[in-house]
Amino acid sequence: MREVLRARIVLAAAEGLGNGAIAGESAVTVNTVRKWRGRFALQGPDGLKDACRSGRPKAYGPDVRVAIVAGATGAPPHPAAAWSHRTIAAQVADTDFAAISASQVGRIPADLDLKPHRVRGRLTRRDTPDFRDRVADMCDLYRHPPECARRLEAQNKRVPVGDIAPWI
């Protein structure tokens, strides 16, 4: 709908109407008409599209996100039965990373659709000194694969035996 309005502004300008007349006809301000006429003059039809918006920059880098996911999927500290946002934040603050709030810790797993409270088994790992470096390398490879690489994804789903029986 916005693109239609912008195109109408440009078409009205091509017919020779002034900015004030176009603004009154389109029910927008004169500044809006100036903006879209100017962008069309500089960029052509691509100028009528929405500009990219960067948004707010991320406050925490991939290292902090990996530390939160590693903590949330690992075994909680004894005697706790489950992780809380506060305990994950305390664990991340004890590492080499910056302090992070419990509410931010809650947002990161939520963005990843990770539900630590529903994990039945824990992902365990050896306490090797280079564990975080290896995880960071794997995450970097996943985010920036080589040109010739192909990514395969699989989901572990349970299927009733009756549905499999005809193919066995």
What does this structure look like?
This protein is mainly alpha-helical. It is 50% helix and 0% strand. The N and C termini lie far apart (54 Å). It is built from eight helices and no strands.
Keywords:
single chain; 168 residues; mainly alpha; 0% strand
Helical fraction:
40-55%
- What is the 3D shape? elongated
Cα end-to-end separation: 54 Å
According to DSSP, the number of beta strands is 0
Q: So how many helices?
A: 8
Q: What would you say about this model in short?
A:
The chain is mainly alpha-helical and 168 residues long. The protein has helices spanning 2-14, 19-26, 30-43, 62-73, 85-94, 102-111, 131-143, 161-164.
Element layout with pairings:
Blueprint: H1 2-14, H2 19-26, H3 30-43, H4 62-73, H5 85-94, H6 102-111, H7 131-143, H8 161-164
Helix pairs in contact: 1-2, 1-3, 2-3, 4-5, 4-7, 5-6
